[in-house]
Write a structure and sequence with these properties.
By secondary structure, this protein is mostly helical. The chain has 22 helices and five strands. The protein has a five-stranded parallel beta sheet. Helix 2 runs antiparallel to helix 3. The longest helix has 22 residues. It is globular and about 60 Å long. The N and C termini lie far apart (54 Å).
């Protein structure tokens, strides 16, 4: 019970309460392997991947053929850049259940495919999976990734599309609620609003890296956290959760226009202080820390008012590459708009126009950085980034790929590599298939000059 309570607190963004419940779970633990694994899961949610691995390992010692333990530990080892160990664990999982879709999907992401051996297995499993959308999503996304590795572009896209359709059938994305919320944010958070009210919290510690997912946010975060004074806190959900708690937000929908009107009245110093208090256990002991939750772009005005000395870095990427990169990625429980081409494009347009509004009103207070420019010409962009943050230059920022800290995002494998441009213009391999996405972007006001 304590372990489950700790998990719920961690998922709710309440690390202090999660810590207390976790301590009770550890204290009363009776070596039940399910509890051991759950304790490990909570440590992972709290950002302590090494400790998570120790507890999941204890569970595996008790039940070495328990499928979920093997998959959880494989995920943990991937986060810690122990890819050989992760691969071994996944093969053990597949000995227990040869057709497990999750294990096959994780295996596909570990390394670049060089032949069709695993592809043929995945194709066979897709035929056997029947109408199980969750399993079909795992298998098709894994299949698409490996087919792309072999540059079988048409087959890869067909697999991604099948996977996206399967995943879309399992989720409820309320696009109208998102539209209304974005409109309300733009109407509410004006320059006049910024100039009114009390002062914010004076802390200089936070650095926010924001943008769309799969646009280089992890790359930039790793450049910054290679600096000796900056800690990588991961993707923290606490700022948005503080807004909802302090505004007493009680709407049944996670997204609604009312959130903007309620948030506008929050006392800035209280919001900044609450965020810092809730993240205290997650942001290390260095002078600065990075919160790399991409959708925090929505809250840029609130961040600037609540934490006026914080720094905000915004990633820009070619809209077609950005949209396709999300479309071909199977996320856990986020980015529900990304599994249908037109929905993905319309969401991106809302984000694009939102950022244009923030840039017009507050553009001198955050830093735009191009993914394409950074990938192709790392040093000048990294230097400009570090200068904006007010930090002295360190050459380690160019060797971000040598970091050993855990990475818990979809970029866990790619970010271990030096900067490269292989993903720039990748969407053009699928130009005809992505025409609905491109047309939707144009219809929503994205300049065609950006879609090349």
């Amino acid at each position: 019970a304590w372990a489950n309570l700790a998990r719920l607190f961690a998922q709710a963004g309440q690390p202090g309460r999660a810590d207390k419940a976790l301590a009770q779970a550890v204290k009363h633990n009776d070596d039940n392997p399910v509890v051991l694994d759950l304790i490990g899961t909570v440590y992972g949610l709290m950002g302590d991947q090494p400790e998570a691995g120790k507890w999941i390992s204890k569970a595996l010692d008790k039940e070495p053929r328990r499928l979920q333990f093997l998959i959880n530990q494989a995920n943990n080892q991937m986060f810690l850049d122990r890819m050989d160990e992760a691969e071994s664990l996944l093969h053990r999982a597949l000995e227990v259940q040869p057709g497990n879709p999750n294990a096959h999907w994780l295996l596909s992401g570990l390394k670049k495919a060089t032949d069709r051996t695993h592809i043929e297995k995945l194709e066979q499993l897709v035929k056997q999976e029947g109408r199980n959308p969750k399993g079909l999503a795992f298998l098709n996304y894994g299949l698409g990734k490996e087919l792309e590795d072999l540059q079988d572009w048409d087959s890869a896209f067909a697999a991604f599309a099948r996977g996206a359709a399967a995943r879309r059938s399992t989720i409820d994305f309320d696009e109208q609620a998102e539209i209304e919320m974005y409109d309300a944010f733009r109407e509410t958070f004006t320059r006049d609003w910024m100039d009114k009210g009390g002062p914010g919290h004076e802390s200089t510690a936070p650095i926010f890296v924001v943008g769309q997912p799969r646009t280089g946010t992890t790359l930039v975060e790793r450049i910054i956290t290679s600096h000796s004074t900056v800690f990588s806190a991961g993707e923290l959900k606490q700022f948005g959760q503080c807004i909802r708690r302090l505004s007493d937000y009680r709407e049944p929908k996670h997204q609604s226009a009312k959130l903007a009107t309620l948030a506008a009245d929050i006392e800035p110093r209280q919001l900044g202080g609450s965020y810092l208090q809730l993240t205290a256990k997650l942001r290390g002991n260095l002078p600065r820390f990075v919160d790399k939750l991409p959708p925090n772009y929505l809250y840029i005005p609130l961040i600037l008012k609540a934490l006026p000395n914080a720094r905000i870095v915004h990633l820009r990427r070619n809209p077609m590459d950005a949209c396709f990169a999300s479309f071909k990625q199977l996320f856990a429980d986020a980015y529900l708009h990304s599994y249908q081409q037109e929905e993905m494009a319309r969401h991106h347009a809302r984000y694009f126009h939102m950022m244009a509004t923030w840039r017009e009103r507050f553009g001198d207070r955050f830093f735009d950085i191009s993914y394409e420019d950074t990938a192709s010409n790392l040093e000048p962009n990294a230097r400009a980034l570090i200068e904006f943050l007010g930090l002295p230059w360190e050459d380690a920022c160019l060797n971000f790929h040598e970091q050993k800290a855990a990475v818990t995002t979809a970029s866990a494998v790619q970010v271990r590599q030096p900067a490269h441009t292989r993903s720039v213009g990748r969407w053009r391999r699928y130009e005809s298939q992505l025409e609905p996405m491109r047309q939707a972007l144009v219809k929503e006001g994205i300049p065609e000059s950006l879609l090349t």
